[in-house]
Amino acid sequence: MSQSDRGLRRLAAGTLLVAFQGTTAPEWVLRELEHGLGGVTLFGFNVAEPGQVRELTTALRGAGEPVISLDEEGGDVTRLAYHVGSPYPGNAALGAVDDVELTRRVYRAIGSELAACGINLDMAPSADVNTEADNPVIGTRSFGADAELVARHTVAAVQGLQSVNVAACVKHFPGHGATRVDSHLAIPVVDVSIDVLRERELAPFRAAIGAGTRSLMTAHVAVPAVTGDTPATLSSAALTGLLRGELGYDGVVVTDALDMHAITRSVGLAGGAVLTLAAGADLLCLGPVPNYDDVQAIIAEIVSSVREGRLSPDRLEEAAARVAALRAWFGTPAPVAAEQNGVGLHAARRAVRLTGETEPLVEPLVIEVDTPPTIAVGDVPWGVGPWLPDAEIVRIEPAAADVPALLATAANRSLVVVVKDAHRHQVSQELVSALVAARPDATVIEMGLPVWRPGSAAYIATYGAARANAQAAVELLTA
Q: How many domains is the chain partitioned into structurally?
């Protein structure tokens, strides 16, 4: 391979954030980092405990200068606490409290834990304005439905993370909050006028840019007023015209995971990589699916696209320069003590809401209504079990529930029903309604968005299903 070929391949590899299975770095990842690979994205399956993550990131740094990223939003979407649930409430809870200093403190604490583990880029916060209650992928990941509220808390989150030298990655540009389709599965559409887009969806991103966010993440969302039927991730009108031009952003643009169906089932993984680079992206998050063969194929396709004139070499040089500036901002990593100041539980306690009155618990039966996880969240544990060790807890598939049997089991006992996003699941509503009709003294705990509520004696809204949210709810229940 000639020197020019090696240089081109290095530029191509430098745009990629790869993933891998397991808690140690494979040889191919370390080898590619030596040859200029941009970095990695870690997932729950890469995490055992903080010391192991620190060892992993140290090994990665020993091979190159990687961007080491993951999704640590607090609340439902967590990677460091994937196996137990997050100690921090998510954005919906923080938006319900609406104390920007609290949001800044929570994200500073999250950032300090990431920094202590050697992670330098957090794919958070979500700056989506969640105007669609039935949104299947954002929901509690959003600060709320009001653009100004979302904007001020997005700024606070960026400031909190970056105060401990962890780069924020504000997502999902130009907005995923008004959708009813999960872009993991298909291409959602935000069909609003450019004026509405500017006033609503773009307001938090404009504020984040003003606050100096080091990176932004694209959405695989079509916005007909800007992108036609093309996802924003692949649209130069969105990434170069709107983001770089109109909003004046000159930081790093990171793609949402390219292995999502909105990309793979429209233009393919390698094709999507070339198109998003041409549109203006700098770092391509590949997601958890692609393996080393896929990575090699993507690099080869980027190299071919330059040689064939489909992608400008200047575009790759521009991306490399932006990523180099981000690395310079990271500086030399130094050990950081994670903040163990209880701010997560404090925030969850401030967010939780009780309507009605709870009664002292008598041999409680807790029915947790099973809710399928979204792909973004994954199979993170949730529920009140850890905080009610003396209760009988049953997790029920709502479609298979035997209501008479459950009511018989609950006879002469306190009944607590725990749901998550009941407004999105008719079968969950039917089960809860049947239980509450027979037992109006029951307490219902909603661990998603409190959009739908039954006529129970007491109703607790947590605005999220993180471990901290559950503890705060149980404290109210047992007060």
A: 2
